[in-house]
UniProtKB/TrEMBL annotation, chain A:
One of its GO terms (biological process) is tricarboxylic acid cycle. This is Fumarate reductase iron-sulfur subunit. Residues 156-178 form the 4Fe-4S ferredoxin-type domain. It comes from Klugiella xanthotipulae. One of its GO terms (molecular function) is succinate dehydrogenase (quinone) activity.
From TrEMBL, chain B:
Substrate binds at residues 259, 271, 370, 411. The lineage of its organism: Bacteria, Bacillati, Actinomycetota, Actinomycetes, Micrococcales. Keywords: Electron transport, FAD, Flavoprotein, Membrane, Oxidoreductase, Transport, Tricarboxylic acid cycle. SUPFAM superfamilies: FAD/NAD(P)-binding domain, Succinate dehydrogenase/fumarate reductase flavoprotein C-terminal domain, Succinate dehydrogenase/fumarate reductase flavoprotein, catalytic domain. PANTHER family: SUCCINATE DEHYDROGENASE 2 FLAVOPROTEIN SUBUNIT, SUCCINATE DEHYDROGENASE [UBIQUINONE] FLAVOPROTEIN SUBUNIT, MITOCHONDRIAL. It catalyses: a quinone + succinate = fumarate + a quinol. It is found in: Membrane. FAD binds at residues 29-34, 51-66, 238, 400, 416-417. One of its GO terms (cellular component) is plasma membrane. Its main location: membrane. This is Succinate dehydrogenase flavoprotein subunit. Residues 24-417 form the FAD-dependent oxidoreductase 2 FAD-binding domain.
Length: 254, 604
């Protein structure tokens, strides 16, 4: 057992209290004024351990109150603030300044493929519509005894663990080139949420969901570009989940 | 699928640009409490859920450690022990009839969730696994017991997802990103009765009136009155603030919980489940200091006690770090396997946000504002109280915004996820039953008047104050004077600051003057609620001259059952803008319900 001392472990945060100026170039769009989005830069004082969300807050709170974005939890758990940061989809609250190249300006814009509403906000309704379409809920007609849980082995529970982590942030779906050109495609997030039930030993409707995803806008649209897996802030192996659903369709069973 | 506002059951009338809807049951809030209520009410009555966030963004999703229920799946346990622990954990300010309901109905609440699909961690026999948590004990304090049902350290995420999934299944009507800003009350036979709610639609700036027979508030907590907090930016206490402004009472507002293990400097939570799995708190010299304060259950003492001990260590110069202002949570002996499988998220939080790897280094931690024990007073049917015993017909509250009171002066870990399920369900059923027998109360003549005035005032203001400055000053002052240790002087200073800030608030200007997605405007409105609630909290705290649970007075260090074994009831009774809170806040008391357990000294 370790017995830490002060010397042994100064946290990284304490070592890095030097702040510096960072430039953010943000793609703005005010639907009441602008015909087209426009880029605007802002300088902010940041610490290396600050997050992009802190930078956005600093702009909104100290410079321009009209900058508009969604956020809530501020630690990567609610899925509100997926955006494109230097061309990659990430959560603003999980992207630390020190992990970006700050010798250059940082580009921030809304995620792609969903209708742009204002600044960094897109209309999420089409995204949630695809989610609802895969029947993302347990379907099981057999009842466990009254007042009893369904039994599930540790291995069976493990089988779908990865896809239970999804926070519906849309980083994956809005990084998918297929989705950009074909908004009808279910998209990775909906497939992830179907996977979560298809591989749950308690569920009795996998075949229904496999049918839905065998549709022309279903899994076969996926071209395995892996953008989604790279974008997922929860570390879900999205492409693998899609591949497992494809295999299950081919085999006709889970 | 019809969980969009355009469902055919919603007939909207538009008068002067204002949209009027009618539902039997309207639920405000789509966190755990709101959606659990919707699952009951939805199938029985025409129901709408109005929420300022997409349901899955609600802060229930941040809950980590677990949900208590004496399932006895892994060791001997029963609901009576759970009741006792809840009462003792709450330092005897718990209403014991309510605690008994909580502990008894816990078992069904967990089973309900499992049956709805929640992926709990499992035992080798395939049953729901259980872990230890602070203050939960075997046989009235003999030793820690494994009572918390969990899904890794994402229990809240799984609850929120599972409830949302079941709402989708039932086709519940959601109005997402609608901010409820007022409760419409109409005078009937000389008494004001709730008739609906007024909401502001974020996307368009349109006002909506939802007339309803039953209204459930499930708007969550208000941790953003503090600077260091585990709470989301959106936890601004709107629902509690609305009730307050209507002249209805708030209960036990002085009792606010500070969770021991927030990431130092950030406040992001590391679940107590870590200590449940064996993690240890250490001071700068590596000493396991909780052994000195709570020899029997040590690091698993209730939160109020652990938080105070940590602050005491720092005050006594035994804090760690360059400024000696935090202590360590040592998980290194748990091993990578336990951390990665049972505590994966918090392991990642420490790595991402502090650059500290819990597998090999201890994590700097310090108490963080976490949970409101007080709130909107209700009875065990979740009916809102107008005074100590009269209910407001058709009005309900559940979850963190409510005070039943099952948490008394200090909530035990895992009892809130339980609370939102047990009392969310009760609220949903009671609201639906009431809607079946009651008629609509007519709306007042101009239901949106106050909201219009508020919005216009903020939009048109030419003031010079920035909302972010006022909010920051409020939060810093609350951390300084109303946190883990309080004195008459510190609280008096906070009250003065709050008064100044309230005056300055009348002079704030927002920069976004637009109609669409005007989050600048809404942050300003939220700040108004924060200021109101902070004032009530501090005023009530100053009045309670004893130390009990989450409320610790340096100048009155002991619990005083003779004078203070009773709930505080605070009423807005004058011009809210008068400088002295004495002029507009009236405090009263409400007896504690005692059934089986007489107050004892609280030793662990
Ligand atoms: C980090 C963290 C970890 C926790 N871990 C645990 C744990 O392990 N075990 C445990 O038992 N408890 C835990 N808790 C406590 C518990 O999670 C919360 O108390 C509980 O989830 C609150 O649920 P709720 O439904 O009352 O509110 P929330 O989930 O906060 O939901 C509030 C809802 O109200 C809506 N709302 C708010 N204002 C308005 C408005 N003006 N108009 C419309 N809608 C509005 C929001 O959109 C949201 O949908 C934890 C808390 C935190 C912060
Ligand atoms: S799979 Fe990952 S990226 Fe996609 S919505 Fe879920 S959490 Fe976000
Ligand atoms: S704000 Fe919640 S995920 Fe970033």
């Amino acid at each position: 057992m370790s017995t830490p001392t002060v010397e042994a472990s100064v946290p990284a945060a304490a070592e890095e209290h030097r702040s510096f100026t960072v430039t953010l170039i943000i793609r703005r769009f005010d639907p009441e004024v602008d015909d087209e989005p426009r880029w605007q830069d802002f300088d902010v004082q940041m610490y290396p351990t600050d997050r992009i969300l802190d930078a956005l807050h600093q702009i909104k709170w100290d410079q321009d109150g009209s900058l508009t974005f969604r956020r809530s939890c501020a630690h990567g758990i609610c899925g509100s603030d997926a955006m494109r940061i230097n061309g990659r989809n990430r959560l603003a609250c999980k992207t630390l300044i020190k992990d970006l190249d700050i010798s250059k300006p940082i580009y921030v814009e809304a995620i792609k493929g969903l209708p742009l509403e204002k600044d960094l906000i897109v209309d999420m309704e089409p995204f949630f519509a695809s989610y609802r379409d895969v029947q993302p809920f347990l379907i099981a007609n057999s009842q466990p005894g009254a007042g009893k849980e369904r039994v599930q082995t540790i291995a069976d529970r493990e089988r779908f663990d990865d896809t239970t982590k999804c926070i519906l942030c849309a980083a994956c779906t809005s990084s998918c080139p297929v989705f950009w050109t074909d908004g009808q495609y279910f998209g990775p997030a909906a497939i992830v949420n179907a996977h979560r039930f298809i591989f749950d030993s308690r569920d009795e409707a996998s075949s229904v969901r496999l049918d839905i995803l065998n549709d022309k806008e279903g899994v076969w649209r996926c071209r395995t570009t892996f953008n989604c897996s790279e974008a997922c802030p929860r570390g879900i192996q999205v492409t693998k989940a899609i591949a497992e659903v494809k295999q299950a369709i081919v085999r006709g069973k889970v | 699928m019809n969980s969009t506002p355009q469902s055919e059951t919603d007939e909207v009338k538009i008068v002067d640009g204002i949209h009027y809807h009618q539902f039997d049951v309207v639920i405000v809030g789509a966190g755990g409490a709101g959606m659990r209520a919707a699952i009951e009410a939805g199938p029985q009555a025409k129901t709408a859920v109005i929420t300022k966030l997409y349901p899955t963004r609600s802060h229930t999703g941040a809950a980590q450690g677990g949900m208590a229920a004496a399932l006895a799946n892994v060791e001997d346990d029963n609901w009576e022990w759970h009741t006792f622990d809840t009462v003792k954990g709450g330092d005897y300010l718990v209403d014991q009839d309510a605690a008994e309901i909580l502990a008894k109905e816990a078992i069904d609440a967990v089973i309900d969730l499992e049956n709805m699909g929640l992926p709990f961690n499992r035992t080798p026999e395939g049953k729901i696994d259980q872990r230890r948590f602070g203050g939960h004990t075997r046989d009235h304090g003999k030793a820690p017991v494994r009572r918390a049902c969990y899904a890794a350290d994402r229990t809240g995420h799984m609850i929120l997802q599972t409830l949302f999934q079941n709402c989708v299944k039932l086709g519940i009507n959601f109005f997402n990103e609608y901010y409820v800003l007022d409760l419409a009350m109409t005078e009937v036979d000389g008494v004001k009765q709730p008739s609906g709610v007024v909401a502001y639609e974020l996307a368009t700036g349109t006002l909506h009136v939802f007339q309803a027979k039953s209204i459930i508030f499930a708007t969550g907590g208000f941790g953003k009155i503090f600077k260091t907090t585990s709470n989301a930016h959106t936890l601004t206490g709107d629902g509690v603030g609305i009730i307050w402004r209507k002249g209805l009472p708030l209960e036990d507002m002085e009792f606010y919980q500070f969770h021991p293990t927030g990431l130092a400097g950030l406040g992001i939570l590391l679940t107590e489940g870590a200590r449940g799995e064996g993690a240890i708190l250490r001071n700068a010299s590596g000493e396991r200091f909780m052994e000195r304060y709570a020899p029997t259950i040590k690091d698993l003492a209730p939160r109020d006690i652990v938080a105070r001990c940590m602050v005491q260590e720092v005050l006594d110069g035994r804090g760690a770090g360059p400024n000696k202002d935090y202590v360590y949570l040592d998980c290194t002996h748990l091993g990578a396997e336990v951390l990665e499988t049972k505590l994966p998220d918090i392991t990642e939080f420490a790595r991402t946000y502090l650059g500290v790897d819990p597998v090999v280094e201890p994590v700097p931690v310090f108490p963080t504002a976490h949970y409101a024990m007080g709130g909107i007073p209700t009875n065990v049917q979740a009916e809102v109280l107008r005074d100590n015993d009269t209910v407001v017909p058709g009005l309900y509250a559940a979850g963190e915004c409510a005070c039943v009171s099952v948490h008394g002066s200090n909530r035990l870990g895992t009892n809130s996820l339980l609370d939102i399920n047990v009392f969310g369900k009760r609220a949903g059923n009671a609201a639906a039953a009431y809607a079946k027998t009651a008629d609509f109360v007519p709306l007042p003549a101009d239901p949106t008047k106050e909201v219009r005035e508020l919005v216009d005032m903020l939009r048109n203001s030419t003031g010079t104050e920035r909302l972010s400055t006022i909010r920051k000053e409020l939060q810093e002052e609350m951390d300084r004077g109303a946190q883990v240790f309080r004195t008459d002087e510190s609280l008096g200073n906070v009250l003065k600051t709050i008064h100044d800030l309230r005056v300055r608030y009348t002079n704030i200007a927002i920069q976004d003057k637009g109609q669409r997605y005007n989050t600048d405007l809404l942050e300003a409105i939220e700040l108004g609620f924060l200021l109101d609630l902070a004032e009530v909290l501090v005023f009530a705290a100053r009045n309670r001259k004893e130390s009990r649970g989450g409320h610790m007075r340096d100048d009155y260090p002991d619990r005083d059952d003779e004078k203070y074994m009773k709930h505080t009831m605070a009423y807005l009774s004058g011009d809210p803008h008068s400088p002295d809170p004495e002029d507009h806040i009236t405090l009263d008391w409400k007896p504690v319900v005692v059934t089986n357990y007489q107050p004892m000294e609280r030793k662990y």
